């Protein structure tokens, strides 16, 4: 697959950024100065001497301090300095995209059952906060539309994980929700599922996409080019088996975002590697740590 974007990505080399794709250039311009989209360009373009800090991406919101994948968790992350929030999306039984991580609502709400078996009306009744702490009683499972509206009004960008295999129609509904609120410039799609990413690319070429990986592919660079990825979003454990992959992907113009990293020791190691984003349950702490650290580029 080559829609012109992979050519554009390959054309990025140190000290020079060129775009063969007007759509990609538009996405990047719309996103600036939001860093997840801008940083991969600056960092992959070899601006090492003035390298920006990795982008802080709040995993399921500020999930160490508030119930994951709720609007209050997103607000805590936002107030803690995170400009990017990661959420998971899955459909209700009647096709409405909701923000939820697990396949069932059991762990994170007062309800039971697979999300795909529950109607939107039922999901709207659930308490998604009490399981975490009484102070959060009454928090809801947000629809994707509600999440996007909240971001649009209150600020921030969305790293949206399409959770599990989605049909073409289900991806189309997600794209419809994003476009309905003119949020394409502030949404970055990621998924472990390659067919789902291909549907996203086909339906919404304006949206940057990232492939999630818990183990490394045999040829990550080749796969990134085949899928026209903007980012390869790899687990910290998997990247530790091949740290040089960051440079290989950057050489190909592909950003690297790493999950889920909560310790200063690993933040320091990943900062030194030059990764583009760090996905963390502790976004406020990572924001503070980055503000206080000595930039890797300045120390050699
Ligand atoms: O963003 C990466 C991470 O969210 C992938 O794993 O299980 O937390 O969705 P998971
Ligand atoms: Ca996720």
Report on this structure.
The chain has 300 residues and is of the alpha/beta class. It has a single domain (9-299), classed as TIM Barrel. Helix content is 38%, strand content 15%. It is built from 13 helices and nine strands. The chain has helices spanning 5-10, 22-31, 35-44, 71-79, 120-125, 144-154, 168-180, 194-203, 220-227, 236-240, 245-251, 264-273, 283-292, and strands spanning 55-59, 84-91, 97-99, 157-162, 187-191, 209-213, 231-235, 255-259, 277-280. An eight-stranded parallel β-barrel has the order 1-2-4-5-6-7-8-9, surrounded by seven helices. Helix 2 crosses helix 3 (35-44) and helix 7 packs across helix 8. 47% of the residues are buried. Mean pLDDT is 86; it is low at 1-50. The structure holds SN-glycerol-3-phosphate and calcium ion. Residues 59, 86, 88, 101, 161, 212, 259-260, 279 line the site of SN-glycerol-3-phosphate.
Task: Describe how the helices and strands are arranged.
Blueprint: H1 5-10, H2 22-31, H3 35-44, E1 55-59, H4 71-79, E2 84-91, E3 97-99, H5 120-125, H6 144-154, E4 157-162, H7 168-180, E5 187-191, H8 194-203, E6 209-213, H9 220-227, E7 231-235, H10 236-240, H11 245-251, E8 255-259, H12 264-273, E9 277-280, H13 283-292
Parallel strand pairs: 1-2, 1-9, 2-4, 4-5, 5-6, 6-7, 7-8, 8-9
Antiparallel strand pairs: 2-3
The structure holds SN-glycerol-3-phosphate and calcium ion (CA).
Calcium ion binds at residues 86, 88, 161.
């Amino acid at each position: 697959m080559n829609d012109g974007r992979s050519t554009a990505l390959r054309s990025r080399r140190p000290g020079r950024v060129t775009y063969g794709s007007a759509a990609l250039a538009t996405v990047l311009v719309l996103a600036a100065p939001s860093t997840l989209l801008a940083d991969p360009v600056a960092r992959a373009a070899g601006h090492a001497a003035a390298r920006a800090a990795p982008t802080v991406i709040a995993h399921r919101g500020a999930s160490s301090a508030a119930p994951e994948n709720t609007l209050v968790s997103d607000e805590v992350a936002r107030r803690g300095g995170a400009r990017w929030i990661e959420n998971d999306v899955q459909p209700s039984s009647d096709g409405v995209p909701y923000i939820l991580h697990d396949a069932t609502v059991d762990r994170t709400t007062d309800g039971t059952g697979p999300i795909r078996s529950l109607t939107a009306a039922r999901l709207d009744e659930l308490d998604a906060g009490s399981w975490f702490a009484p102070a959060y009683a009454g928090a809801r499972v947000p629809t994707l539309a509600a999440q996007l509206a909240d971001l649009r009004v209150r600020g921030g960008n969305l790293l949206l994980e399409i959770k599990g295999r989605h049909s073409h129609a289900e991806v189309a509904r997600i794209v419809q929700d994003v476009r309905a609120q003119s949020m394409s410039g502030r949404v970055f799609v990621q998924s472990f599922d390659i067919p789902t990413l291909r549907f996203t690319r086909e339906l919404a070429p304006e949206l940057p996409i990232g492939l999630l990986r818990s183990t490394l592919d045999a040829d990550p660079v080749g796969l990134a080019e085949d899928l026209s990825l903007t980012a390869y979003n790899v687990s910290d454990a998997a990247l530790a088996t091949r740290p040089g992959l960051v440079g290989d992907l950057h050489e190909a113009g592909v950003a690297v975002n790493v999950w889920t990293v909560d310790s200063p020791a690993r933040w320091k190691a990943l900062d030194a590697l030059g990764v583009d984003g760090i996905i963390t349950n502790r976004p406020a702490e990572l924001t503070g740590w980055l503000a206080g650290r000595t930039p890797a580029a300045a120390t050699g």
